[in-house]
Amino acid sequence: MKNQDIHLILDNIRSLHNVGAIFRTAEATKVKKIYLCGLTGYPPRKEIDKTALRTVAGVPWEYVKDVTDVLKKLKKRKVGIIALEQRTGSLYYNQTKYRFPLAVIVGHELYGVSERAISYTDAIVEIPMYGRIAESLNVATATGILLYKIKES
User: In terms of Cα–Cα distance, which of 64, 29, 63, 28 is closest to 45?
Assistant: First the structure.
């Protein structure tokens, strides 16, 4: 994998198990930093540790209550910002050109990325759904798919 700077922003992720799973994938894909925002839980928590499997120590992270504080800081540093979200006008994740440094926002398991965060994005990408029942993937699963695709870019 190439050495691209990727920041990961968790916008109101309510499941601590999802947070832990995202830490594990972030460590595996060499994410530069994770920003835990809003109601997203943060270490130390046994539920995070259970799915993170010791990777919390391997990924720099910071809790920031207001997601827009992080996004303003990254914009000022000329970091590209994308959201992983299903919505009209989004681009398929596998047909998108990624530029670095890059920040990826993932959102609430039911409500997605907040509109406040969306307003800072340069692009919105989605993973297409081919099934007949599920409308979306689990946020930790979707984050893993996207991070590995970005690392292949």
Answer: 63
Q: Output the average pLDDT for the chain.
A: 95
State the CATH number of the domain containing residue 67: 3.40.1280.10
Using the Cα atoms of residue 2, residue 3, residue 5 and residue 11 in order, give the sign of their dihedral.
Answer: positive
Q: Is residue 1 part of a domain?
A: no
C-beta neighbour count of 112 within 10 angstroms: 21
Q: Quote the CA–CA distance of 137 and 153 in Å, as a whole number.
A: 22
Which of helix, strand or coil describes residue 22? helix
Name the percent of the chain lying above pLDDT 70: 98
